[in-house]
């Protein structure tokens, strides 16, 4: 068997890959949503600054493996391996994955390849009830054939991510959360839309979490008076105590969620649960139909989501393999 590196200009090979992808999605071997050819090509072949995309195709067009090297964040990823259904269990998938790994290790100089939510190449997928979607796959679906394949190819779990779902149609604050909100307000803690003209310490609080994605997504958001998306914050004596948001509704009806964080000085007060309820209620008022999110299995933040009524709908493994 031979494997060819696919050039971004070779549309014939790209169409062979697309047919394999569509077969896997239609056969429900993958949870990914259907894409048209141009969307598929954009994800795997269009140039992005600081990102080198690499794809191999089996010579007969029966399998492909694709990944990328994120030079900015110094990480390498396998995005997916797809083999035609009739050609599985013949060693084709393992062989083409090895080709991809060898090139990535050689060209990048990295010591590890991941399958994780850090991959900048994202694919939206539909949750099992079919009524909602989530914008990226945070690892390898543990109920899929891909999970056993990557285990057999030497990849090991380094984190487990649970995906949560909640329809917002009937959402409202629970009695317990209303009491907690009232109690916090008596202490002088209020829940507001962030305004840099009256609220202090936002930059220090966000940077204190040590999360590069929050630094990028939250601190770069324009202020509300310049038509930026609202960021929701708990406030004590004019100082920001945490954040959630930004407040936005995606075209699918999904309420956007970048994350939630409470400054360590203000934890253990139930502030996170009230702040998250404020987000859910605010998204509902903006006509969001549902929310999906994911978090680590052992992340204490999961209690916030479960308290709000979210249910786990799928579990993914973040996996890695060393050189």
**Tally of DSSP helical segments:** 9
Main beta-sheet strand count, sense and barrel state = 5 strands, antiparallel
By CATH, the topology of the largest domain is: Aminopeptidase
Helix content: 25-40%
Strand segment tally: 16
Provide the domain count: 2
Notable features of this structure?
323 residues, Aminopeptidase, alpha+beta, GNAT family N-acetyltransferase, 5-stranded antiparallel β-sheet, 9 helices, GNAT_dom, single chain, acyltransferase activity, transferring groups other than amino-acyl groups
Overall description:
With 323 residues, this protein is of the alpha+beta class. It is built from nine helices and 16 strands. Strands 5, 8, 9, 15 and 16 form a five-stranded antiparallel β-sheet that branches. Strand 6 and strand 7 (133-134) form a beta hairpin. Helix 5 (175-186) crosses helix 8 (271-285) and helix 6 (202-208) packs antiparallel against helix 7 (212-219). The radius of gyration is 22 Å and the shape is elongated. 37% of the residues are buried.
Q: Secondary-structure map with pairings?
A:
Blueprint: E1 3-5, H1 11-26, H2 37-45, E2 51-58, E3 63-70, E4 75-83, H3 92-108, E5 112-115, E6 125-126, E7 133-134, E8 140-141, H4 145-152, E9 156-167, H5 175-186, E10 189-193, H6 202-208, H7 212-219, E11 231-236, E12 239-240, E13 242-245, E14 259-262, H8 271-285, E15 290-296, H9 302-307, E16 311-322
Antiparallel strand pairs: 1-2, 2-3, 3-4, 5-16, 6-7, 8-16, 9-15, 9-16, 10-11, 11-12, 11-13, 13-14
GO molecular function, one term: acyltransferase activity, transferring groups other than amino-acyl groups
Domain N-acetyltransferase: 4-178, 189-323
Protein name: GNAT family N-acetyltransferase
């Amino acid at each position: 068997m031979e494997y060819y590196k696919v050039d971004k200009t070779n549309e014939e090979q790209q169409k062979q890959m697309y047919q394999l992808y569509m077969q896997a999605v239609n056969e429900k071997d993958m949870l990914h949503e259907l894409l048209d050819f141009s969307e598929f090509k954009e994800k795997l072949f269009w140039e992005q600054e600081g990102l080198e995309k690499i794809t191999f195709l089996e010579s007969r067009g029966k399998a492909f493996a694709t990944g990328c090297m994120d030079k900015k964040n110094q990480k390498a990823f396998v995005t997916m391996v797809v083999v035609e259904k009739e050609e599985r269990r013949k060693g084709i998938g393992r062989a083409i994955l090895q080709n991809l790994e060898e090139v990535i290790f050689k060209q990048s100089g990295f010591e590890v390849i991941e399958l994780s939510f850090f991959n900048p190449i994202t694919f939206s997928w539909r949750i099992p009830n079919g009524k909602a979607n989530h914008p990226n796959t945070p690892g390898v679906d543990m109920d899929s054939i891909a999970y056993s394949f990557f285990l057999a190819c030497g990849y090991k779990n380094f984190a487990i991510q649970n995906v949560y779902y909640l329809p917002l149609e009937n959402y409202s604050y629970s009695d317990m959360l209303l009491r907690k909100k009232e109690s916090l307000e008596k202490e002088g803690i209020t829940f507001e839309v962030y305004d840099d003209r009256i609220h202090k310490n936002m930059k220090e609080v966000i940077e204190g979490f040590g999360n590069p994605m929050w630094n990028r997504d939250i601190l770069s958001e324009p202020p509300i008076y310049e038509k930026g998306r609202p960021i929701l914050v708990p406030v004590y004596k004019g100082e920001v105590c945490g954040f959630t948001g930004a407040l936005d509704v995606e075209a699918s009806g999904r309420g956007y969620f970048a994350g939630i964080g409470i400054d360590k000085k203000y934890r253990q007060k139930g502030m996170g649960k009230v702040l998250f309820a404020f987000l859910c209620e605010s998204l509902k008022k903006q006509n969001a139909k549902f929310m999906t999110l994911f978090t680590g299995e052992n992340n204490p933040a999961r209690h916030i989501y479960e308290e709000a009524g979210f249910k786990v709908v799928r579990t993914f493994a973040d996996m890695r393999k060393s050189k």
